[in-house]
Every structure is written in C-alpha cells, then in structure tokens.
Write a structure and sequence with these properties.
2 domains, three-stranded mixed β-sheet, 12 helices, binds adenosine-5'-diphosphate, GMP Synthetase, Chain A, domain 3, alpha/beta
C-alpha cells in the first residue's frame, strides 16, 4: 500500500470517533499510478451521517499530494465492523461499564439539585464545555430522564450513530453527549419506572462509545429518586456537586439531594450557588436572597464529616439565558460574561482536585 497515500490519509479524522481513519480500518484498496491515486474508503455503516464530510476530507488530503484523485466510498463488512468495535471497546466484552472498573481514570461528576429551575442543566452543560476547552476529554450524560434539556442547551440536532449495538454519541464543543432526548420521538413524555429507568441509564454507560474520558459529567434529575440511586450503584466512584440558589428554602431542599448522594456512597465535591446576584452599574442586587450556597456547604460538611466547599457563585446573566435558549453554551459563546467566567473558574478548580479526595474523609485527625 502506498506510504504516500497513507501518510496523507492519516490526517483525515473520523468526525464521530475522533481518530484518524487509517487507525480505524476505514482505508481499503489504494492504487497509485504515477501521480494519480484511487482510494476505497470504508464507512462503518450504510448511511453514515459523516459520509460526506469524510469523502470531502479524504479527497482534499489526497489532492494535496496527487494530481488526479478518485475516491470510492463503500461500507465495512460485518467482520470488519466487529474488529473495529472490539478495538473501540479496548477488547473488553460487550455490555461492559468502563467507569465501574477498578483503576478507571475517568472522574465522574454527578450534578444534582433539590428542585428544578435552579440552573442545574445549564451549569452542567457549561461545566462540561469549560472542562473540554481546558484540554480534558469530556463526556456529558443527560440523566434528567423526565426533564432532559441538554441537547437543547448544547445545540445538538443530530442523533447518535449506531454501529450495531455500539452508539457513537454526537459531539458538541468537543463534548460527547448522550441524552434520553435522542431516543424519544416528538417530545413525547417518558413514562418509565424503576427497572426500565435502571436499564436505560445502564445502557448509556455500556453501549456508548465514550472513549477514554477524563471527565464524565452527569446531569441528574432534580430531587432524589430512582435514577440517582441507579447511577450511584452503576458509578460507585462518582462524586457529587450540588446546585442551589441563594434563598434559604432552596438551600434546605438542595441539602437533601446532597445527603442522598452520601447514602448511595458518593463523596461530595462541593456546592455551586447559582443566580447569586444581579450586577447593575457595579452594584450587586441579591434578588434571590443570599447565603444559600454557604449554608448548604456547611450542612453537608456536618453530615458527611468531611469539608464540603462552596465551589463558586454564579451571577444572574441575561446573556447566559439567551445563549442557552439558542443552543450555545455561554462559556464558548461569550467567555467574558461574568457568569461564564464564574463557571470557567469552577471548572478549573474541579479539575485541580485530585481523584478520590472529593468529599471523602481524609483519615487525618486535626490536633
Ligand atoms: P434546571 O436544570 O435546574 O431545571 P435550567 O438549567 O433548565 O434549570 O435553568 C432554568 C432556566 O434558568 C433556564 O432558562 C436557564 O437559561 C436559566 N438560568 C440558569 N442559570 C442562570 C443564570 N445564572 N442567569 C440567568 N438565567 C439562568
């Protein structure tokens, strides 16, 4: 096979798998005569949504080194697909949860809140994008089964591509995203209970090609319920972040959601206070009261017996709200926005926390 053609093709990245096509078994026969080349490219599945992009990139990569280029697109055989799937799963068995294995390097973050409407999903999406922009490999799992909103906030219109039983998640702002919203038609409500919910969230872990993630950020449903308990069992190494607004009533409810996390075994990484204040002409107006975040952190420290930090306070921001409604996370859209900056700083702080120390007892007794 022509070294020159292969070198050119190694610059072509599969948009869903984010790896060079030369490493994915996607390059078929290549014939080179003088300065002309014809290449066969094998897509993973018939009707692959990335087909056009791959054909365009292959053609332009080859045109960079040959005068005449002919590209033929075909599809992998079932055997070839099996080889690829095994490679993507790291030769692990089918239906394997990569995050539950001992020594997994992925930090799993559960983002929860006591009630809806406190900005949990908005913050989760923006934290994921901020972590990705800071150079981490990030997955975002929307487990807010009944109130999923992540696809909208992330501006995702596509659906996962299925390579047999393996799902390739859509990627937005370099974050791999899976949501129940991708699997329900026409905004129909999801009416699932215990065992079905458990199976659905389990499949999101086992049947999705997440790649080697640094972070898996999980948007939990508000409150305390079946999904949080299932996920707690499936992801025993996770740590939780609790979102609250500043008013006392919200803080009391938020505290309960953090406490449930402790019962299912997660350490608490910290608390984020959202909608903390509105700044007008340099003056901070505490529309929703103040002190809720600090109060939740103090209470959860008491309950867990380990220090729980207030990770940050995010101001009310009209541009955050507008950008979210349009499917554009504010940390990417307008990083200078004060709310975006606050989320960015929280992401930096989270990334700096060593694995395994989050909210767990340190076993050191102060004298
Ligand atoms: P939850 O996931 O807790 O139900 P959402 O993330 O859906 O909450 O947010 C609820 C609404 O509040 C959305 O319209 C969102 O854009 C808006 N919002 C969230 N945080 C802020 C903020 N800091 N400033 C202004 N609007 C916000």
């Amino acid at each position: 096979m022509s070294e020159k053609a292969l070198a050119a093709l190694s610059s072509v990245i599969d948009p869903e798998l984010r790896r060079p096509i030369t490493e994915l078994g996607m390059v078929g026969d290549i014939e080179e005569t003088g300065n002309s080349v014809s290449a066969v490219i094998k897509l993973t599945i018939v009707g692959c949504p990335a087909a056009q992009a791959i054909e365009r990139d292959v053609t332009s990569a080859l045109q960079g080194v040959y005068d005449a280029v002919q590209v033929t697109m075909t599809t992998m055989s079932a055997e070839e697909r099996d080889v690829l799937k095994a490679q993507l799963r790291g030769n692990k068995p089918i239906r394997h949860n990569p995050f539950a294995v001992e020594g997994s390097l992925t930090k799993v973050l559960f983002v929860g809140s006591g009630k809806g409407g406190v900005g949990k999903s908005t913050i989760t999406a923006n934290l994921a994008v901020a972590l990705a922009k800071q150079g981490h490999n990030v997955g975002l799992l929307d487990a807010d089964i009944f109130g999923y909103s992540i696809p909208g906030i992330m501006g995702i219109e596509s659906r996962p591509t299925k390579v047999d039983e393996l799902m390739l998640p859509p990627i937005s702002h370099d974050v791999r995203v899976i949501s129940i919203g991708f699997f329900v038609e026409d905004n129909k409500p999801v009416a699932w209970r215990g065992p079905m919910l458990h199976r659905a969230v389990e499949q999101f872990l086992t049947d999705v090609y997440w790649s080697d993630l640094d972070f898996l950020v999980v948007d939990l449903p508000p409150g305390t319920g079946d999904v949080a308990i299932s996920l707690g069992q499936l992801l025993p190494g996770a740590s939780s972040i609790v979102i609250t607004t500043p008013q006392a009533a919200a803080a009391t409810v938020a505290e309960r959601s953090g406490a449930i996390g402790l019962q299912t075994g997660q350490g608490i990484l910290g608390v984020i206070e959202n909608m903390s204040y509105l700044e007008i002409d340099g003056n901070r107006h505490h529309i929703f009261g103040s002190g809720g975040g600090e109060a939740v952190a103090t209470r959860l420290s008491d309950i867990s017996g380990a220090p729980v930090k207030l990770l940050g306070q995010i101001p009310i921001s009209e541009s955050l709200r507008e950008a979210s409604d349009q499917g554009r996370p504010i940390v990417a859209e307008n990083p200078e926005d004060p709310a975006a900056k606050a989320i960015w700083d929280i992401a930096t702080e989270i990334a700096a926390i060593p694995r395994g120390l989050s909210g767990k007892k340190l076993g050191i007794n102060p004298v």
